[in-house]
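Researcher: Re-running this chain for the archive, since the previous output was lost when a drive failed. Same request as before.
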Amino acid sequence: MSESSDNRGRNVRRVRPFLEEFEAKPFWANLREHKLTAQHCKACGKFFTFPPQGSCPHCLSTDYEWTQLSGKGKVYSFVSYHRAWHPAYEGKTPYNVSLVDLDEGPRLISNVIDCPPEQVKIGMPVQVVYEDNDEFTLPKFRPVN
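Model: Regenerated structure tokens:
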């Protein structure tokens, strides 16, 4: 895991997603190709909730496929942070953590970027954008005009 320094010069671990979880590997691999995907149950036809998991939260079937999503959605809820919850976030405040209802149905936790936190609104239309890092890609969202 990579490290950075906080404002006092102490080494801190950077926040990193759990890339090696079996169920989540396809999700992270698809994001590297700039494809937002979700698990879609073949038994009941519903999308899984995030994070990726081994069985359908609706019917408990383990028969699913990864389906590409449009990346369009609306902000369901959000919170704005004005203090860093972890030293790796020092200097990045304020920022928001948003729940985005994707048009296809799943809800994803992420950030709305290119928008001051005080302008994020419930019901705001958003579109996925991809933040490439050395080891992984994160889905972020940008307001749609």
